Amino acid sequence: MLKGAEFLIKAEEADAVFTPEDFSDEQKQMAETTEKFVTEKAIPFIDEIDAGNYDKVVQLMKEAGELGLLMIDGPEEYGGLNLDKATSMLVAEKVAPGGSFSVAYAAHTGIGTLPLVYYGTKEQKEKYLEKLLTGEWLGAYCLTEPGSGSDALGAKTSAVLSDDGKYYILNGTKQWITNAGFADIFTVFAKVDKQHFTAFLIERNTPGLSFGAEEKKMGIKGSSTRQVILDNVKVPVENVLGEVGKGHKIAFNVLNVGRFKLAAAVTGAAKYALAEGIKYANVRKQFDRLISSFGAIQEKISDMTAYTYASESLIYRLAGLLDNALNKIDPSLPNYYEIYQKEIEEYAIECSISKVFCSDVLALVVDETLQIFGGYGFSQEYPAERFYRDERINRIFEGTNEINRLLIPGMMLRRAMKGEIPLTQEAMKAVNQLMTPSFDEIDESTPYAKEKYTLNNLKTIYLILAGSAVQKYMNNINEQQEVLLSLADIAINIFAFESAVLRSEKYLSKNKNRKAELMEAATKVFGFEAVEAISKAARKVAFFIEEGDNLNILLSGIRRFTKYDATGLLKFKKELAKEAIEKEKYIF
């Protein structure tokens, strides 16, 4: 199994990749239970919830707790199920069609509970964790402030130790806090003595803790979002979470999982929106024909299906990587969660990739779904309008997509400088390839040989451009955000395309059926789009960093290394659209 970021310098074997086709019976049963709950209990009340009925949200959260849906990531000794990441992501995906309820669910089970799971003391867990895992109590996470969003460490909320040493006294305001209207316990970040970034557990009824009015948001209207105001709030010293001055570890490590779980959720939302769009296309007539019979609509359905396939493939490939790493840790070790967090941090780059790519896919899907609905998509009487409004926050949640895109090449370069990944050596090899004519022949009798050859070339051009950018800017590379953003776009699309290829290849090795044919179609359709996106981003980097002969050399290399034979593209699009239109849903 690959380590973090190694996908750019190594080829992973298809058999080593976890895919949705590998789900166990237990995982499928958990998915069915979740889907039934959301379909019967949440979706019928979406409008009521969006109108501000937070009591309904709380009721649903408690019912979810009774079904065990809040326990998935919790340790068994405190009533949790301690299930794998693949199951956790699958449940997050199935909850997603629940609209604003899914936001409350994700906040509680992710950033609302995991800080305590990973960093809580035995006493803290005994006091709070079982309540959170059953839904008796609900959690919230207070990091953002009016003046600090992406710059989380710029927080101004202060904590001062009382004279008797028994309490920390907190003052400040937290902004955009999900579940604030009904949460029972808050993980709050503050700076001890205005310097040491630290996390605290604060109960709702603590004197001095108050809340602003519900925010009037563009979307996810049924999720509670308020300011959390701390006015001389006395927090017992035993409620410090983790260590004083080490709050950044909690904030950032928990966000890795949060980003990954959000990626799974938006993938579930994309599947749901796609299905609604197809159903509408199958009843709406124009020019005396169902609009689903028009090529323009069919291409939209095909592209949405292919992108969602790539999104789903990426999610469960990453789940497999994490589960493989986490399963090797001995749970009886006293520092189990310390090691656990390091293993998750190993794949922080991939977590950011998943968040950016999958949220961008949902944006594409809901935009095209609304377009299929036409004028009715702009009406609140139809679901596309809500999909459109609710989607937008996902590119801001859990670190904006811009911040995550900057993190991707930034973390890679830091790891390279530490010698953790041989990026520099591989970049030098890539430059040698640029200067050497290629006479490679592709064995087209091997399944997905073209795609794997293309992926190897795409990785080569990434390494060339990253190496050239570092050589030009040296230690100032982190200031060249335009360059880093485009490098991130290349890496993101490589990981997504490779995830789709490996999934399709793995399935084909054991099955020669209609699904295998449709997987090939989805891979080809997405592959074309991914390579086009990579080519554009690569040219941007070249124009950003070079001129003259050096620029011409880079542009020549980009043309050479971003070729992809997408012969039969229209046929593949029509195959995907035909199947999706017949089944009126996401087909994989």
Structure, described:
By secondary structure, the chain is α+β, with helices and mostly antiparallel strands. Helices cover 56% and strands 10% of the residues. Helix 8 (247-281) packs antiparallel against helix 9 (295-326), helix 8 packs antiparallel against helix 12 (383-391) and helix 9 (295-326) packs antiparallel against helix 11. The model has no long low-confidence stretch (mean pLDDT 96). Keywords: FAD, Flavoprotein, Oxidoreductase. Residues 245-408 form the Acyl-CoA dehydrogenase/oxidase C-terminal domain. Its cofactor is FAD. Residues 24-136 form the Acyl-CoA dehydrogenase/oxidase N-terminal domain.
- Content of β-strand: 5-15%
Structure summary, number of beta strands: 10
Which of globular, elongated, flat, extended, rod-shaped describes the shape? globular
CATH level 1 class label of the largest domain: Mainly Alpha
CATH superfamily of the largest domain: Butyryl-CoA Dehydrogenase, subunit A, domain 3
Brief overview, please?
By secondary structure, this protein is of the alpha+beta class. It has 19 helices and 10 strands. The two termini are 25 Å apart.
